[in-house]
Specification:
241 residues, 32% strand, alpha+beta, five-stranded antiparallel β-sheet, binds biotin
């Protein structure tokens, strides 16, 4: 059973949950707005009114190295919840963005705290209209594609997150297969971006934990792990030779 705590505004639900050592497994902190929302790779996450911003605390006995598939499974859980509540299947852009028609509607940030606890942060653009200028071409809100009832989406999300907690180790294979089927990065040319370096590659496959296996034009291959690089998609679907 998840335990929901709601607040109006907070700097970051991930940061706040990390700073609650007494919080129990299954605690969910939900905010209507964040003033310092955090994204992957040290970026910020715009969190104005109109979105669902929440963090889930998981205190699991498995070591973190055994839970590398968690973030992809969270993407599957959120995607299922959006379908349950809104009847819309979103695409997954590796590793953890949910997109509709090429625009990001949800971001996921999984963090560890110093006590081995896992904080799963999820931000969904539901009725957001106030995107900063730099996001206007790449982000969108669910309401642009389908009617959204935020309370209904929240309830669906809580159900799917509870399901995820139970399935995390027992149903990994099936959930990862669903992830791969929805992952629009596979079979595409991508730019692999690490700091200032940008390399063209072909996204061939996912490993069992959701790491991305890419092939470079010279034939060399590499496995890219979550948190080490970001990906820009190219529209073509032609394999590099
Ligand atoms: C990303 O796309 O880079 C990840 C974004 C994650 C945003 C969510 S919103 C709720 C939680 N609190 C945060 O500060 N970040 C996550």
């Amino acid at each position: 059973m998840l335990k929901l705590i709601k607040v109006e505004e907070i700097p970051s639900t991930n940061a706040a949950l990390k700073a609650m050592p007494e919080a129990e497994h299954g605690t969910v902190l939900l905010a209507k707005r964040q003033t310092a929302g955090r994204g992957r790779l040290g970026r910020s996450f715009a969190s104005p009114q109109g979105g669902l911003y929440l963090s889930l605390l998981l205190c699991r006995k498995e070591p973190p190295q055994g839970l590398l598939h968690l973030t992809p499974m969270v993407a599957v859980a959120v995607r299922r919840a959006i379908f349950d509540a809104c009847g819309l299947w979103t695409d997954i852009k590796w590793i953890n963005d949910l997109q509709v028609q090429g625009k990001k509607v949800c971001g996921i940030l999984t963090e560890l705290d110093g006590m081995g606890r896992i904080i799963v942060g999820i931000g969904i653009n539901c009725h957001t209209t106030a995107f900063p200028p730099e996001l206007r071409d790449i982000a969108a809100s669910l309401h642009e594609f389908t009617p959204v009832e935020e309370e209904c989406l929240l309830q669906a999300l809580l159900c799917r997150l509870e399901e995820l907690d139970e399935a995390l180790c027992s149903q990994k294979e099936a959930w990862m297969a669903e992830y791969a089927a929805a992952c629009i990065t596979l079979g595409k040319e991508v730019d692999l971006i690490r700091g200032d370096s940008r390399r063209r590659a072909f996204a061939e496959a996912l490993d069992e934990n959701g790491a991305l296996c890419v092939r470079f034009p010279d034939g060399t291959k590499e496995t890219v792990f979550m948190g080490e690089a970001s990906i820009r998609l190219h529209r073509t679907k032609v394999a590099l030779c």
